[in-house]
Amino acid sequence: MSSRIHITGMGIISAIGPSVDDTLRSLQNCSTGIKPITHLQTRHKNDFVVGEVPFSNMELAEMASVQPFNRTTLLGMIAAGEAIKSAGIENVDEARTGFISSTTVA
Length: 106
Description:
- This protein is mainly alpha-helical.
- 32% of the residues lie in helices and 6% in strands.
- It contains three helices and two strands.
- It has helices spanning 20-28, 57-64, 71-87; strands at residues 34-36, 49-51.
- Strands 1-2 form a two-stranded antiparallel ribbon.
- It starts with 19 loop residues before the first helix and ends in a 19-residue tail after the last helix.
- The mean pLDDT is 89.
């Protein structure tokens, strides 16, 4: 038995863009999001440059329209929200959906 999978919506927030469109533009322009650490909580702030999403946790919570969570959860919520909107889903409880997440936070 064969099953079909249809990708109807995508969402992304990354070091090179806060949305699919912005990230695609950055890729097309060969932009890099590699910069000094400004928002991640680490003792290595001065030791490395990283591909950090350039928003504070408070800014991410505002973007997700939620109370602050941990950074990974906020990034997932923002990307999922964009994917749901992109797919035209108005009530996620009525749709059969799947969620694939990839993160390197932590």
